[in-house]
Write a structure and sequence with these properties.
Shape: globular
Number of strands: 21
Family: Belongs to the ABC transporter superfamily. Sulfate/tungstate importer (TC 3.A.1.6) family.
Pfam family, one: ABC_tran
Subcellular location: Cell membrane
Keywords: ATP-binding, Cell membrane, Hydrolase, Ion transport, Iron, Iron transport, Membrane, Molybdenum, Nucleotide-binding, Transport
CATH architecture of the largest domain: 3-Layer(aba) Sandwich
Number of domains: 2
Strand content: 35-45%
Function: Part of the ABC transporter complex WtpABC involved in molybdate/tungstate import. Responsible for energy coupling to the transport system.
Bound molecules: adenosine-5'-triphosphate
Strand order of the largest sheet: 7-8-9-3-10-11
CATH topology of the largest domain: Rossmann fold
Length: 365
């Protein structure tokens, strides 16, 4: 996506060293993050990591205990001098998890709700335009209870976009939709934000959702920002074991660094294939990050086996295997059904990755 590849783009939102406490609980801990104009950035992390609190700090529904928040370069909250711009005076819209539509108002009236101070003719034209953008021109007169979940979400989006905010916040936008509808609405939300030219910040604990819709993901853990970047970059080159494990299946294969190789129980790996391995790690032990689709598992067929399959799970089109190697290392592998291997089969295991592999210094146990 070349909209975000140029880093020259202006920051619409800057969060600078923000901390938010609730009693002894530090919900957001010294968080700094800058969001570029027009991008969709997703805050991703497990339950309780501080995503919603971060969103509420941006919206002006919470005040920071430390640090400051700037929208379009203007300080909207600063702990130091108590600056606090209330939510309605920030150019920030919010789409709530439950859509929060007014049940007694029609779709068009819901969209027009925040536009009281607009001239009637301009307001009507703007509402028509927004209904068209979200594909609901034909449902302008329907009440929310006459609309499907996906249609309600479209109206909620149109209503939040109506006052033309610079930033749109989306709290767990797909959690109230049926599984089938989620994938369709991901694409739709993405399209609508792009066409509206608004900067989006969404929140989810679903890594697949985050990676599929976002220009960048910001991974949080215990109130802290762990890593922010392009989804593929964060997936392939996580900077911590937490991020590696949160974004997908991760096996950590022990290795020993020699002059030109890393020796592992999956075979020797050329040192040039290990991402950013500095000379100071010569002659040390590291753990190489291996994803299930980097690994090929085949029945040993009487030949020398590397290990055996200890676990197998069907994931629709693919099968996930867990293999215990001779030295006790556990590796996960993912294959399609054509290469089916049964439980307990002695297998050979081969590293099939063609990309650079990430690694972590060995932890002392
Ligand atoms: P989830 O995915 O479950 O919504 P989250 O990542 O959005 O979680 P937050 O809702 O931001 O996490 O909560 C972060 C931490 O702050 C949690 O431990 C939570 O219990 C605490 N917390 C959040 N809001 C409040 C509040 N108003 N009062 C007290 N504690 C709070």
């Amino acid at each position: 996506d070349d909209r975000v590849s140029g880093s020259a783009e202006a920051a619409v939102l800057e969060i600078d060293g923000v901390t938010k406490r609730f009693g002894a609980e530090c919900a957001v801990n010294d968080l700094s993050l800058s969001v570029r104009e027009g991008e969709l950035l997703t805050l991703l992390g497990p339950s309780g990591c501080g995503k919603t609190t971060t969103l509420r700090l941006i919206a002006g529904l919470e005040r920071p205990d430390d640090g400051e928040v700037r929208v379009d370069g203007e300080r909207v909250a600063a702990a130091e001098d108590g600056t606090f711009v209330p939510p309605e005076r920030r150019d920030v819209g919010v789409v709530f998890q439950d859509f929060a539509l007014f049940p007694h108002l029609s779709a068009a009236e819901n969209v027009a709700f925040g536009l009281d101070d607009w001239d009637a003719e301009a307001r009507e034209a703007h509402v028509d335009e927004l209904l068209e953008l979200v594909g609901l021109t034909d449902h302008a007169d329907s009440k929310p209870n006459e609309l499907s979940g996906g249609q309600q979400q479209r109206i909620a989006l149109a209503r939040s976009l109506a006052p033309e905010p610079d930033i749109l916040l989306l709290d767990e936008p797909f959690s109230n939709l049926d599984v089938d509808l989620r994938v369709e609405m991901r694409e739709e939300v993405r399209r609508i934000l792009t066409e509206a030219g608004v900067t989006g910040i969404s929140v989810t604990h679903d890594q697949e959702e985050a990676m599929s819709i976002s220009d960048r993901v910001a991974v949080m853990h215990d109130g802290a920002l762990m890593q922010v970047g392009d989804p593929a970059e964060v997936f392939q080159h996580p900077q911590s074991r937490f991020v590696a494990g949160f974004l997908g299946h991760a096996s950590f294969v022990p290795g020993y660094v020699t002059d030109d190789l890393v020796e592992t129980s999956l075979g020797n790996i050329g040192r040039d294939r290990i991402h950013g391995l500095a000379p100071e790690y010569d002659r040390t032990r590291i753990d190489v990050l291996v994803r299930p689709d980097d690994v090929l598992v085949r029945p040993a067929d009487g030949g020398e086996a590397d290990g055996r399959v200890t676990y197998r799970r069907y994931l629709g089109p693919t099968v996930l295997y867990r293999v215990e190697l001779e030295d006790g290392t556990i590796v996960e592998a993912m294959h399609n059904h054509a290469q089916r291997v049964s439980l307990d089969t002695p297998v050979t295991v081969e590293l099939a990755a063609t990309h650079d592999l990430s690694w972590f210094p060995t932890e002392d146990h």
